[in-house]
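Tutorial sheet, problem 5. The two components below are modelled jointly, 683 residues in total.
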Amino acid sequence: MKKSLVLFLLLAMVVSLAGCSGSGDKNGGADANEIKIGINYELTGAVASYGESSVNGILMAFDEINAAGGINGMKIVPVQFDNKSEPAEATSLATRLMTQEGVVAALGPATSGNFMATIPVAMGNKVPIISASATADKGVTVDDKGNVNEYVFRLCFNDSFQGVTMANFAFNNLNATKAVIIQDNSSDYGKGLAENFKATFEAAGGTIVAHEGYVAKDKDFNAILTSIKGKDFDVIFIPGYYQEAGLIIKQARDQGIDAPILGADGFDSPVLLELAGAEALNDVYFSNHYSSIDEDPLVKEFIKAYKEKNGVEPNAFNALGYDLGMFIADAVERAGSADPEAIKDALAETKGFVGVTGTFDMGEDHNPIKSAVVIGLENGVQATSVKVDPN
Amino acid sequence: MDQFLQQMVNGLSLGSIYALIALGYTMVYGIIKLINFAHGDIYMIGAYIGFAATTYVHLGFFPALILSMIVCAILGMIIERVAYKPLRNSSRITVLITAIGVSLLLEYSMMFFVGAEVRSYPKVLTNHLFHFGGVRVNMQQIYILVTAVALMILLQYIVTKTKTGKAMRAVSIDKDAAQLMGIRVDKTISITFAIGSAFAGAAGVLVGIYYNSIDPLMGMMPGLKAFVAAVFGGIGSIPGAMIGGLAIGIMETLVAGYGNSMYRDAAVFAFLILILILKPSGLLGKNEREKV
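Model answer (C-alpha cells):
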C-alpha cells in the first residue's frame, strides 16, 4: 500500500508537469521596411489567460502604431509563438526567435518562472527581452550575485513593492495597527508579499497578531478563521491568488468577520466576485497596476479604444501588454535603428515614459520606478482608487 | 470553549465529506482489494454534474443531489466494466496502475471539456445562521451533516439488512465460495462500485454548494485524504471509514486552529505514516496475516 501511494504521487507529479498542446504561427521574410518583434507568450496551458490578455494588449498597440505609419516609416511585424505555459518551451522559442527569426527584441513570457527561463538565451544572443508582468523579486533583472542582467527589462513593479504598499496603506489610510496575515504558502509570490508586508508594517509600529498559511487549491479556511476570530485585529492581509482569496473572503464574512481585507494584484480577476459573492466584497482593498475607474484621460482613451475593439473592459494584463507594445516601439524609435544593442541602450535610458499603467523612468536595476494603485471594492465593484508612489 | 465547539462544527462538516468519499474507497477495497484512485475524480465529476444541474437546469438541492448520485453510479459501473473487469485475474499492481490511468483520464478529459478555471455554484441553499450560545452553525453545514448521516445510515442498512448487502459481504470474504453459492459476483461488484460512486457524487455536490468553488483537479487532495481516512479506520471496514473520515476532518481543523495552519496537510500525511507503522490494519480493520 505504501508503494502504491508513492507510485501514485510520482505519477501525479509527472502529469502535472505535462501540459496541453498548441501551435504557433510563423512569419517569414526579411524586409528593410519591417521591424520584427518576438512575442513569446502563454497562449495555452495553465496560465493561458495571462498570456492571451497580454498579447491582446501588445497587438492592439502594434496595430495603432502601424496604422499611424509605423516607427520612422518601418512597420512592426510581430512574430508570435505559444510557449504552452512551460519554461522549457519558452527557452527554445526564445532561441528560435533570436537565432532563426531575427527579431530585434522579444516580449514576454508573462509569468516570472517562464520569463526567467529565457534570460540565459537573451544574454547569450545579446537580444533584449522585456516582460510586463514578471513580478518576482529575485532572479529577474538582477542575478544571484547582484549584477544587473544587461538585456533583461520589465515594466511592472515587483512583489515586494506591493507588500510595502499595502502595509503603508493599512497603516496610513486605514489607521490599522494590528494585522493578521493569511498567506499562500505554495508560491513565492505569497511568501514575498507576506515578508515585505510584515517588515514594513512592524517598522511603522504595527504588530502582526497572527500569521497563518494555506496551499493552492485549499477550500476550507473555517478552522483558521475561527481561530483568528477570537483575536483582536484591524485588518486581514491575504497575499495569494483569487481562487483561494475569494473563498477566504466569503468564509470570513460568513463567520461575521467584517474587518477590512487587503491583497495584491492576485485579486484582480472577475472570478473573485463569483467565488466570494458581491455582499462579501465590501471593505476589500488590493494593489494593482492600473484601475479601470482612473480619471486620467490617457487611461480613459485606452479603455474606450479597447472596448470598441474587443467588446469587454480591459484588465490589468491588457493594460500592461498595451504599455509593453508602446514601450518597445518607443525604444526602437529612440534607438533610431533596428540594432538590438542600440535598442537595449534606449530601454535602459528610458526617462518619463507615459503609459496607461503609469509614468516611469527605468531604474539602474532595469526595474521601472512607478506607482501602484490601491483599488477598493464595494459590493464587488471597484469604487475607489488611490495612487501610491514608490517610497 | 465556544471557539473549541465552533472548531468541532467546522471539523465535522469537513469530516463528513471525507467520510462520504472514504466509504467508496473502503467498499471497493473490501470487495476486490483494489485501491480505486479514480474515486476522487468521480467526486469531482459529481460536483460538475451538480453544477450543471443547478446552473443550467435550475434544479434545487435535492434533485441535483440525486441526479448527480445517479450519474456517478452509472459512471462508476462503466469504469468498473471497461477498465477493471478485464483485469480481474491480473496482478494487483496492474489494476492499481489502471486506476491511476483512469484517474488522470477523468481529470484531463474534464479539463478539456470544461476548461481549467474554477467555477462557482449558484446560490442553492440559504446560508441562514443559527446561534447555539456562541457557536454559529449555518444552514449549509446542517445540510452537509444531515445528508452525510442519512446516507451512511442507508448504507449500513443496505449492507447488513438486504440480500444485496449479504451478497456484497459474501463476495468480500470469499469470491469463489460466493460464486459456488449462486451469488452473481460480477453484478455484486458492479453494485458496490455504483453505491461507492454515488456517495462520492453526493460529496461533490455538497462541497460545491458549501465551498462554492469547483475545478477539474479538485478530487486529488480530498481523494488522498479520504484514502488516509479509510486506512485509519481500517481499509475494508465501513464503520471504520466513517470514523476515519470524521477523525481526519477534526484533526485537520484542530491542527489549523490551534497548532500551525502551515503544517495542516503535513500532519495528515504524517499521521498516515504513523498508522502504517503502528497499526497497519487500522482502527477497525481485520488483522490478517498474509500467507507466504
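Marking note: The mean pLDDT of chain A is 88. Full credit if you identified this.
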